[in-house]
């Protein structure tokens, strides 16, 4: 039964890619539920299971509030990483690594994903399974699928959740994060349906209660998104004072040999030979510096936040034995109103910074760097008051 439902996933994705197949966002919620139920049946969910899944659904205003106020990602890298990474959390991660060694060894053998990466996500997402979220997942998904901000993301998740319900792998009282992620490593229903792993052999994929299911499913998802076995993801480095800062940032990739020739030196170990890499300065040239490899970019398939991804990638290296970063002494961060004013100025100059939200994401960093080059300032991608004043 599970294989038959999963086989329908490509057709389901194709159907939802066409506007005529998608349920209209906004409008009457009851009518929306009726149309979504019909789509679930068309996608292969048995009618009785679909009827049960959509019965009693309620919109959740708290979900929409959470979706529009993700202020935690406005923190700097140093503030964010220091708030998430503690001695206790690091010790717990290493203890879990030893306790569940067989599971992590299997994850690496079958999917190529290093244990530090899985432990970092497990720690940050749910504090090793202890805090999995208390939003009703079904209500959250349908609230977001009905909302007009991102229906193309959440409507397929609703249909996947209905299919998981038909497989007895999604209880209607399931709770999780406000955005519909479920379980110890917080995966969306479509990922669970298509890439869930029955790690404990009980015939079900249950990410809320089974450590083996959760960790192996997370590893399989990362592999699906391009994780490269045996390769690093991030290494802390030092840069010469004469370094060309305009070469930093995710938009510039060069072989590690080229970076070494320019004076890029790892604080410990060596740069991975033969790999394309970028130089990352989360808080500019006066803060920590990292070389990031192709695997680093796979982290964005789990979370789109630059600050979260960089912190998770760094924490994964700490779990596996790396030293604490050299914090340096970065220039002060802009206040929220200053960041939003900067984004408005950058957008007016034609840069794509996304939403004017005060969050220093990858798009804003790239725009900052281009303007720093144009104005003859150190082009390290870190917004300063000097740049704001100059614009």
Automatic annotation (TrEMBL):
Q: Supply the SUPFAM superfamilies for this chain.
A: Lysozyme-like, PGBD-like
Keyword Signal belongs to the record? yes
Cite the Peptidoglycan binding-like domain residue spans from the record: 338-391
- From what superkingdom does this record's organism come? Bacteria
**Gene3D superfamilies registered for this protein in UniProt:** 1.10.530.10, Bacterial muramidase, PGBD-like superfamily/PGBD
GO annotation, biological process: peptidoglycan catabolic process
The keyword Signal appears for this protein: yes
GO terms for MF: peptidoglycan lytic transglycosylase activity
Residues covered by the Transglycosylase SLT domain: 29-316
Cleavable signal peptide: 1-22
User: Protein name, please?
Assistant: Lytic murein transglycosylase
What lineage does the source organism belong to?
Answer: Bacteria, Pseudomonadati, Pseudomonadota, Alphaproteobacteria, Rhodobacterales
């Amino acid at each position: 039964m599970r294989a038959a439902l999963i086989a329908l996933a490509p057709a389901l994705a194709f159907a939802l890619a066409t506007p005529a197949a998608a349920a209209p966002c906004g409008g009457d919620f009851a009518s929306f539920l009726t149309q979504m139920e019909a789509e679930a049946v068309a996608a292969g969910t048995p009618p009785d299971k679909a009827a049960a899944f959509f019965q009693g659904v309620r919109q959740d205003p708290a979900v929409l509030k959470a979706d529009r106020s993700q202020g935690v990602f406005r923190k700097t890298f140093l503030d964010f990483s220091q708030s998430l990474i503690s001695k206790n959390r690091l010790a717990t991660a290493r203890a879990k690594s030893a306790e569940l060694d067989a599971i992590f060894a299997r994850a690496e053998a079958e999917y190529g994903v290093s244990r530090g990466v899985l432990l970092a996500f497990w720690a940050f997402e749910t504090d090793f399974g202890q805090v999995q979220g208390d939003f009703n997942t079904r209500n959250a998904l349908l609230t977001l699928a009905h909302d007009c901000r991102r229906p193309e993301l959440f409507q397929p998740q609703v249909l996947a959740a209905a299919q998981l319900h038909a497989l007895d792998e999604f209880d209607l009282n399931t709770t999780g994060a406000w955005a519909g992620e479920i379980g110890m490593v917080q995966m969306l229903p479509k990922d669970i349906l298509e890439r869930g792993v029955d790690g404990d052999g009980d015939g079900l994929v249950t990410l809320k209660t089974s450590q083996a299911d959760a960790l192996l499913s997370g590893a399989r998802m990362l592999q699906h998104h391009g994780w490269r076995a045996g390769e690093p993801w991030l290494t802390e480095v030092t840069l010469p004072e004469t370094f060309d800062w305009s070469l930093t940032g995710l938009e510039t990739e060069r072989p590690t040999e080229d970076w070494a020739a320019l004076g890029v030196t790892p604080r410990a170990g060596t740069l991975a030979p033969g790999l394309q890499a970028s130089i990352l300065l989360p808080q500019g040239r006066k803060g920590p510096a990292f070389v990031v490899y192709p695997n680093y970019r796979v982290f964005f398939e789990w979370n789109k936040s630059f600050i979260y991804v960089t912190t998770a990638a760094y924490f994964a290296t700490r779990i596996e034995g790396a030293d604490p970063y050299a914090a340096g002494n970065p220039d002060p961060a802009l206040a929220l109103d200053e960041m939003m004013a900067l984004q408005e100025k950058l957008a007016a100059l034609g840069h794509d910074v996304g939403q004017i939200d005060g969050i220093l994401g990858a798009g804003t960093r790239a725009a900052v760097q281009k303007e720093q080059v144009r104005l003859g300032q150190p082009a390290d991608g870190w917004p300063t008051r000097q740049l704001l004043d100059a614009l």
